[in-house]
Design goal:
Length: 149
């Protein structure tokens, strides 16, 4: 089993590590993920999460862009990225139809994250548990980071 981390985890992490040098931030990311999930838990992000993180770099103002890009590149160098493949697409189509039939909308990107995790037999690690808890059959792990020090 493993945990597919969603974007909210990295938003919280980036805030908690603001001002840290990349090497120190990388060590703290690894340490905090181990504390939250256990030392032996596999972790990854979906390709859409990588896109969301990179989108944040492109949208950052000049004062924050360099630091944000360094953080995102550290994440992409540290945590494996899982592609959206045919098995994920099949899982996504069933999930999407089920959610639509029940008038539940969690957003296109989060459906992709959830479907990718479900296709792998993994949980989603998120700082937004209430959002992902609305998906039947999805294992959800709440993740909250303390300020690194």
């Amino acid at each position: 089993m493993g945990t597919l981390l969603d974007t909210t985890v990295f938003i919280h992490l980036e805030r908690s590590l603001r001002g840290r040098d990349p090497a120190s931030a990388r060590r703290d990311v690894i340490r905090q993920l181990r504390e939250e999930l256990g030392a032996h838990e596999e972790v990854a992000i979906s390709a859409i999460t990588a896109s969301e993180l990179l989108h944040g770099v492109h949208r950052a103002n000049a004062a924050n862009k360099v630091a944000r890009e360094a953080f995102v590149e550290m994440v992409l160098d540290t945590i494996p990225v899982i592609p959206f493949d045919l098995l994920s697409a099949r899982t996504h189509s069933r999930l999407w139809a089920n959610l639509a039939a029940n008038d539940i909308d969690i957003g296109a990107h989060d459906r992709i994250v959830a479907a990718t995790a479900m296709a792998m037999g993994w949980s989603v690690g998120t700082a937004n548990v209430r959002h992902f808890d609305r998906i039947p059959g999805l294992a959800v792990t709440g993740i909250s980071f303390s300020t690194a020090g």
